[in-house]
Amino acid sequence: MQVKEYKPLIVAFCCNWCSYAGADLAGNNRLNYPADVKIIRVPCSCRVNPMFILRAFQRGADGVIICGCHPGDCHYTSGNYYTRRRMAALFSMLDFLGIEKERTRVEWVSAAEGAKFAATMNEFAQTVASLGENKRLEDLRCKK
Amino acid sequence: MKVSYFPGCTLKNKAKDLDEYARKSAEVLGITLEEIQDWQCCGGVFTTAKNEIATKLSSVRALKDAAAKEQPLVSVCSACHNVIKQTNHAMQTDSDFATKVNNYMAEESLYTGETQVYHYLEMLRDLVGFDALKEKVVNALSGKKIAAYYGCLLLRPNGVMQMDDPENPQIMENFIRAIGATPVLYAMRNECCGGYISMESPDLAANKSNAVVKNAVAAGADMIITACPLCKYNLIKNGAEIPVVYFTEVLAEALGVKEDTNE
Amino acid sequence: MNKNFIQEEILRSSGVNPKKCMKCGKCSATCPAYDEMEYHPHQFVSMVENGDIEPLMNSKSLYRCLSCFACIDRCPRSVQPAKLVEAVRLAVVRQQGKNHLTANDIPELIDDETPQQLLVSAFRKYTK
Amino acid sequence: MQRVGVFVCWCGSNIAGTVDVAAVAEALKNEPGVVFSTDYQYMCSQAGQDIIKNAIAEHNLTGIVVCSCSPRMHEATFRKTAAAAGLNPYMVEIANIREQCSWVHKDMTTGTEKAIILGKAAVAKVNLNTPLTPGESPVTKRALVIGGGIAGIQTALDIADAGFPVDIVETKPTIGGKMAQLDKTFPTLDCAACILTPKMVDVAQNEKIRIFSYSEVEEVGGFVGNFDVKIKKKARYVKEDICTGCGACVDKCPMKKNPNEFNLGMDNRPAIYIPFAQAVPKVATIDPNACNMLKNGKCGLCARVCAAGAIDYTQKDEIIEEKYGAIVVATGFNPISMEKFDEFAYNQSKDVITSLEFERLTNAAGPTAGHLERPSDGKSPKTIVFVQCVGSRCDACSEKGKEYCSKICCMYTAKHAMLTRDKYPDTDVYVFYIDVRTPGKNFDEFYRRAVEEFGVKYIKGMVGKVTPEGDKLKVQASDLLSNKQLHIDADLVVLAAAIEPDKSARPLATMLTASMDTNDFFTEAHPKLRPVESPTAGVFLSGACQGPKDIPETVSQAGAAASKVIGLLAKDKLTGNPCVAHSNELMCNGCSSCERVCPYGAITYEDKEFRMPNRTTKIRRVASVNPAVCQGCGACTVACPSGAMDLKGFANSQIIAEVDAICK
Predict the structure, then answer these.
(1) Which of A19, D63, D526, D621, CA to CA, is 20 to 30 A from D9?
(2) Could D340 and B214 be called an inter-chain contact, meaning their C-beta atoms sit closer than 8 Å?
(3) Domain that residue B211 falls in
(4) Which of D70, D67, D98, D66 is nearest to D82 (CA)?
């Protein structure tokens, strides 16, 4: 039997104005990070509904990261503050449900921080990989 | 109305008159001062260090006693008031400190700063009311120009004491108005008289006391009132050219009970 | 005693954060005992911040602070220099044999009018 | 069901080097809805775009996915391509397989795998896209400027210069603001009145500008391009159009002892007054709290002496309603109260004054006709102590004063000190400073001149106590550099009081739904890149209402705000971003959660009638989003507990489809 190498699946929500641009910059500078990270573009980090994160875990994601503008730099003035508060609450609930806190993260990445984006993704992917597969919320009916 | 009363060491000795005038006047104003049983000296100054426990226990015992009777705790001496109020504040805000203190206490109930702490002046302002006081005055001290000397302990640190604006207080001035006299404003009223330094460095204390009296005299005062035995001592010892008396003395005089007290 | 240990102990027991100081000198401007102090309130703040505490411990400035709290109330940055002076003083008088005042000194220092409050306060400040 | 076309770009070797583009196109062919899939070397080239256009026509596509570079690069390009082929531009989705795939991964297998997943996510999303049309709204070509100081004046003049009508609302009886009270201006020392009053006259004479003086903004409704504003014109008991400003009434008024606000209470004015000689409008105003006629019907002298017959004791407050396309806030600042700083004896001595009072004392039109005299006894001061940073740079816990640096004090104190030494060389002038902050053109040179040429004594330290005694002010201070406590017998002490936003700013911000910081300064849409715009569309910021500022900075910001207003008013119609929030009224439970998180005030509630079973109706409170105001952040969609609120272009279903596609 062939043993498949374990690859974590990571969903990254990036705000359109800072972090998505930061990810683009990482690309422009050819900074490597694992292909396990897949980015979904949202207008603002505060657009990320807890439902999306739960859905990702249910469908087998091993880690979810939300990236937004630095506090005070939000394109919409205060969106990232909402994110910070909402996610603090959500992540501790997830932790309670058995999704380790290390699998979830909020990170501020500006449009100039390509290097930070790549470093964050490398580090996050490694952390998630070391935790192994996430099975807690996975819905087997969704598995193919 | 009954309140708990913490007289303090000096009021039982050198400042007996401060105590007696306070009691007599309170009676006239319909307030009974119930002396805390077996009170112990407050220690004179509040040690600000967080890890200083034992020196604050006597204050906590008094506070606890008042709490048991559900009465506010009143003191007349500025120093006692300062120490008790700061200790109470520490009990309210520093849980680590409060735990350590409670470990010393015999009773099972925990004390965390529930008692309301009043200075006698605050009692006059907030519990009696200066207007009500004015009505009880039988012997208005009209024509007297009185300088209120706050010193440090009544007002500072303001974050804890919360008596009045620490730089431009009005409570004693309003008290002076209530007893029919004229308050004299002067800037040195909230500066230090030298305090306990008069023990080791009488010159420094003389220097500080003189600056206070000089400023009051320049402002036209013919009398200084204070709530603190040590302030009074320092001002008089260093040759104040105008009388320095306790505020309770002029209060008793205005209420017509001063003579009773002397008998 | 270890220098860092004393510094930490003083910061902890005083609850003061000297880093908040903006070096305006208002504490020293307002201090009534300034002229009798070798190290002034603003120096207490910067010297404790720099861990330069031994000179403070050996200075008579410790016994000149009147605890009038004017520096605490007037400091624009809420640094509370008087609490540092107190913490350094305690670090000294709490040591064996370091009481600044003994009962034997008293008779010479008092007069008939001396209020009890003066004795009590002086002992509280000068002894452990 | 959509008919989706997929177009995979090689970007030369940029993508094709690490991604097997043909395999991607092949893999995506089997995705739901995909009816066409191809790859090409440069999709953004003319030939590439033609491939897209042809495919749209040929295969009757209803949505397209372009697997290419970042949407930040070419989303706009491909939307135009789609539009040219008759497809709604919002039916285009981009899968970013360059910046976020081929450029960051080295291995062909990995790159191809990821590109396919990104493509699938985009296909999943586009399947749920709906055609969107940006909303349009008309623009009322008139601007409102709130505040008539130098900020408001400059903004109004610049807008009027571009040909748009402007109204200025000013609470005081005259425009001019703080600058009218100043004597000289740093660092060039030209007289404030000489450079300000011509501008005030320009405002008065400009036919595009209307001045509502002695007026307040009462209510603001509407949104960018279409504000409805109610302005309360307070009764001044003088008919503005008739009064000639001759001043006969002012001379004759018997109620002469009212503190003169313009001179900060350092002298008196009558009950009927004109704030100062160059006031605009130069019209008298009756102070109803001081006038005998208004209080108890006895007097009437002013009406008798007024040749023009302008006095009207029966005048009432008047409400004016007007429509505006843009609103500029220019409410300015005030020095903070010195009440809590009585260690400096401000309340105890008349000879302790603030710097603004010092301005009036040295102003030729001030209470002393420009002679520097002590307010208490009129003597000339021989020793003056200036104290800087009074109430600025305070710790948040100190409960008195402000945390920020007030910015202008260092320079005006240097100016006061220098001018005093210049005019009265036998005066000793001390300045106590913590830091001297002089960033600005010719600012540090100015300060150095005060020290080196004019002999102002700058002392690093602070004043701790001021004790009035006799006719002296005993100043106790520290000199940190010589490690001494100083005792100075001064004649005059001048406090550089911190400045704070005008008290009217907070209620105004509520009316405008413009955001403020904890100090009540208005916040800008972006601190670096959009410094004169409020986050609320159509509301602009000018001058010290946004933060402490000196005159040159205020004027440049005023001009910048004006240019933004002009840019807005020049449009006939505003086209919005169609990716805005919208609420499903049937699901909305009226809880107001969305309204509370909206940074733009785009959400309002209204009572609506809904049809219920059995031919009954029910009135329910439901949210409605104003698409002209909504900026599309999506905060409300997450706050909404019932799931009624959604965001067009980034709908819940679309994002979930992307998540599912990625996690498959």
Answers:
(1) A19
(2) no
(3) 139-255
(4) D66
Q: Which of D237, D300, D323, D298 is nearest to D273 (CA)?
A: D237
What does the pLDDT look like over D636-660, one tens digit per residue?
Answer: 999 999 999 999 999 999 999 999 9
Is D285 part of any domain?
yes
* CB proximity under 8 Å: D 322-361 to B: 339-343, 345, 347-348
Q: Which chains touch D (3 or more CB pairs under 8 A)?
A: A, B, C
Nearest residue of B to residue C78 by CA position?
B159
Residues of D in contact with C79 (CB under 8 A): 395
C29 contacts D463? CB cut-off 8 A: yes
C contact chains, 3+ CB pairs < 8 A: B, D
- Does C118 share its domain with C83? no
Contacts of D466 in chain B (CB under 8 A): 187
Domain range enclosing A81? 10-142
Residues D490 and D342 in one domain: yes
- Whether D395 and C70 lie within 8 Å, measured CB to CB: no
Quick one: C47 and C17 in the same domain? yes
Is C75 found in the same domain as C20?
yes
Sign, CA torsion D154/D155/D160/D163: positive
Of the candidate ranges A130-144, B15-29, B140-154, D632-646, the one whose mean pLDDT is the lowest? A130-144
* Domain presence at residue D186: yes
Contacts across the C-D interface (CB distance below 8 Å): 70
Q: Which domain holds residue D618?
A: 581-648
Chain C residue numbers with beta carbons less than 8 Å from the beta carbon of D478 are 25-26, 28-29, 34, 40, 42
Residue indicated by tokens 């064996």: C96
CATH of the domain at A104: 3.40.50
Whether B162 contacts chain D with CB within 8 A: no
Predicted local distance difference test score (pLDDT) of residue D117: 96
- pLDDT tens digits for range C23-82: 999 999 999 999 999 999 999 999 999 999 999 999 999 999 999 999 999 999 999 999
- Which pLDDT does position C98 carry in this prediction? 87
Q: Is B201 a domain residue?
A: yes
Lowest mean per-residue pLDDT among B230-234, D164-168, D576-580, D651-655: D576-580
Contacts 24+ apart (CB under 8 A), D417-420: D417/D384, D417/D386, D417/D450, D417/D454, D417/D456, D418/D446, D418/D449, D418/D450, D418/D454, D418/D456, D419/D183, D419/D184, D419/D189, D419/D362, D420/D362, D420/D372, D420/D384
Interface confidence, given as ipTM, is: 0.79
Q: Same domain, yes or no, for B111 and B186?
A: no
Strand partners, D488: D475
pTM of the model: 0.81
Residue with tokens 């994160």, as numbered in its chain: A53
Q: Do chains D and B touch (3 or more CB pairs under 8 A)?
A: yes
Q: What is the pLDDT of residue C108?
A: 87
At C24, list the tokens: 């305006």
Verify whether the Cβ–Cβ distance C121 to B196 is below 8 Å.
Answer: yes
Same domain, yes or no: C104 and C87: no
B157, C73 Cβ separation under 8 angstroms? yes
What pLDDT, on a 0 to 100 scale, did the predictor assign at position C1?
A: 55
The one-digit pLDDT tens for each residue of chain A (144 residues) are 455 567 899 999 999 988 999 999 999 999 999 999 999 999 999 999 999 999 999 998 999 999 999 987 788 888 999 999 999 999 999 999 889 999 999 999 988 889 999 999 999 999 999 998 887 777 767 655
- CA-nearest residue to A7 within chain D is D110
Considering only CA atoms, which of D317, D516, D499, D508 is closest in space to residue D406? Answer: D499
Q: Which residues pair with B246 in a beta bridge?
A: B226
User: Three-state DSSP class for D200?
Assistant: helix
Q: Do residue B115 and residue B183 come from a single domain? A: no
Q: What is the CATH number of the domain that holds B151?
A: 3.40.50.11810
Q: C77 to chain D: which residues are within 8 Å by CB?
A: 393-395, 398
For residue B14, list chain C residues with Cβ-Cβ distance below 8 A: 113-116
Which residue in A38, A44, A77 is closest to D662 by CB distance?
A: A38
Q: What type of residue is B179?
A: I
For chain A, the domain total comes to 1
